[in-house]
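Notes, Module 5: Reading structure tokens.

Key idea: the token line is not a picture. It is a compressed description, and you learn to read it the same way you learned to read a sequence, by spotting repeated patterns. We will look at two proteins. The first is printed below with its tokens.
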Amino acid sequence: MGMVITTCTFAQQPGDLDLNFGTDGISTVDANSQGLDDGANMITVQSDGGLLVVGRIKTGTFVTESDMLIARYSTDGIVDPQFGQSGFTITDLGGEFESLFGIYEKPDGKILAGGSSNQSGNSQQTLIQYNENGLIDQNFGNNGVIYTSATLSSASITSMVSDSDGNVLTTGSGNGNILVVKFENNGTLYNSFGTSGVAIHDLGLIESGYEMLLQTDGKILVTGTQNESGNPENGIVVRLESDGSLDLTFNGTGWVDLALSENTDRSTDLALLPDGRILVTGIVPNASVTALEIFAVRLMPDGSYDNTFGTNGIARYDIGAGDDYANDVILQPDGKAIIGGYENDGNDNNFCLIRINEDGTLDQTFGDNGVVITEVSTDNDRIASMALQPDGKLVVAGSARIGTNDDIALARYHTGLNLSV
């Protein structure tokens, strides 16, 4: 089914595919066998070890015609036929472009998913709650659905997290600004956060939030981009107080412009170290400005660069002959970090993982000198999201072009971690 460019066929070394997952370590599925483009945007591990994946499925000839998709797999990458319809639930809310980007399993087993739906020509933040069996929970919101941004232009949910009380926070963009919304467990807006549950921050230009996480003190970190219309993007990191206001102890303004290039640089994910330092990953043009490469930046808790990481706080990784792209980062318990995305070898895109040490150097014990390239198909393979399973193995989700259409693609890798109790 796929080819892995690694040095061991027994799948025992860090970076090797786990051959007990799917078929030879890889699972590709055409959702509901409809022969349409589909793909995963996020994967999470459930409390029972199952895997939940959210994304989209194309519904027409135009790129923007898609519906929301949620799927469940067993721990070992087999589609769960008891979930939804043969393992999948496709949700059409009547909008032109609909997709899910975030997912959260509640303590009671219900599943909250977030994304966007284009309603009457305006994209809206959308929350949907599903029962454990994949059917929409009709007792949540309005027949299972909540729209939160009808008064905002081009609003979307790109990431969501939960706090210790079961409240849910989402980030994305609205009116060209960073948008963070907080909900109570039942889906109602958390009125003491921002303005009636909604915090919008205009940082002076056009901003978008991509990913978020919560600090242990309740403060909120968001990474994304800022740009002036028609000009290159810059990666940014924003920190909010627990009430949704900007945290002015962070860089004196509440946000940091990474400004890694005069051309486009985009921060796509972040991870929080136990001591409060912040690892940010994304893409930036390479030295010759001929292609994109992956970057990692580490910030101190106050927003300044951590000069013990990389070169003056910045590390860059040029992997393939063409563009490299980072979509997700996971911090391992041993302090190493895995960055997932894709690389272009000059012909097509392939799954790409790199593992870095605490100082930003490539971990030579992982894959081929710190890099793992997996060719799932002969065309367009991309990792969108990753998760560590309880035993320390890494599962990734994204898409791969099988034949003439994109399919949901999952894979599992050994990491060398042994987290089993």
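Here is the second protein, with the sequence above and the tokens below, as before.
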Amino acid sequence: MANTFLRNMNTPGHAHPGESAENKLQSLTQALGAAKIGYWTWAPDGRMHWDSVTKALTGAPDVNQNTSITDLLVHIDGGHEQLLDAFEASSLKQIPFIQTVTIIQGKRKLRKLRMIGQVDTSTEHKEQSIAGICFEDSAAGSAVENRTSTLEDFFDHSKVMMAELDLEGVFLRANTAWGSFLGTDSSHLIGRSLLNYLHPNNLPNTKVWLKQLTKRQNIADIRPTAQGELSAQVYIHGKGNREISWTWTADLKTKRIFTITRDITETYQEEAELTKELELAQQSNTELESFASTASHDLREPLRMISSYLELLQERYLEALDNRGRRYIDYACEGANRMRTLIDDLLAYSRIGKTSNPHEAVALEDVIANAIDNLSVAIRQSKAEITVDINDAPIAWVIRSGSHGFSRIYSATRLSSNSPMSF
């Protein structure tokens, strides 16, 4: 079939007088070889034949009677179905066969190969054979090589740990970041299992993960890839236990797992410390609420007694008192009521995080006016001068309490003594 293809290329119009067909065929073969152009043939039953140049370009084995398309596909990086479809379409429809494929050579070294063919019209079968040539696409190959080189540089010099594993968790490749993390040369990881570096507590889950990926090979044609995230603990001599998290993608057809791993020890420790602090804060809040509840209960009882006796004075001895005495009793009753409100506010404040009361809009000028009224006696005794100058007072959304602004103004009153105050 290769001879048929070459004879078709050597048309009669270009024959030299006296030159035999065999000599012309030999000359053409030598010319193709010198140009590093190989030739190949493909039969509908899948058998293939190629010359030494094609073998060198593709890395395919020596040709024998059982050589098939499969022997070539194993050297092609993806696009297998597209290539087979193109063969079939060319054979059935008698259209030119033109494909560019990516050839894998060595350690993932890629090169672009151009394959051009035509149908062998010397037979009358429904599916006809195809004969063609192949040559390296230098422009595309150079682009692939540059791209591959860039990716390899990124892989090797990235500060993020990257690795390629097989489905048993054995390192096939690891970048320098992995070596730095483990305190060794990354080349020492090749051929060793990831499981050797994990904490014993993490081994069961990791083994289950690898076993599940192995089982999924049965559906690789339907779902050829899988992705996910895992975390584990690694023990490093001199550093102790370190927490790692990795994102992985598995190619089930090639039985490879590609991982990106990060050291999250500091983040893990910070989260643990934050959780501990939150627990302490919750415990403190619980204790505060318990204290406030006990204190409010203990304070209510003597206050209730004071209020009761004041009410008795108002009911039984009001007529015996002059206006000043009546005013003093009114002040005492108002003070007792304010004290009751403060005790209720103290208890409400301790439960502020658990309250279901809605927020209300409160004008700050009303808060200050109410606080000044509550502290009128203290203000008068301290001879404090209070000036309130609020233009367009803002509205605050608060959970209402009975003595807004009390603590701030009360403290200011005690500290200021005879000094004027402004708000």
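Summary for the second protein:
- The chain is about 45% helix and 20% strand.
- The mean pLDDT is 77.
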